[in-house]
Amino acid sequence: MLRRCARPSKEEFWDSLGGLLLALFLLLLGVWGPPLLLLMFIKALWG
C-alpha cells in the first residue's frame, strides 16, 4: 500500500475530494444562500 507508485493516486484522491467538497459547498450555498440574503435584507430594512 505504501509503495512509491501509490503517490499519484493519493494526489488524485485529494483532488477528487476537493472537487466533491467544492460541489457540496456550492450546493449548500445554492440552498441556503437566497434565504440568508433575504433575511439580511429584511434586517437591513428594519434596522
UniProtKB/TrEMBL annotation:
Arranged from A to Z, the UniProt key words for this protein are: Membrane, Transmembrane, Transmembrane helix
Q: What's this protein's name?
A: Uncharacterized protein
Instruction: Name the source organism.
Output: marine sediment metagenome
- Transmembrane segments annotated in the record for this chain: 20-42
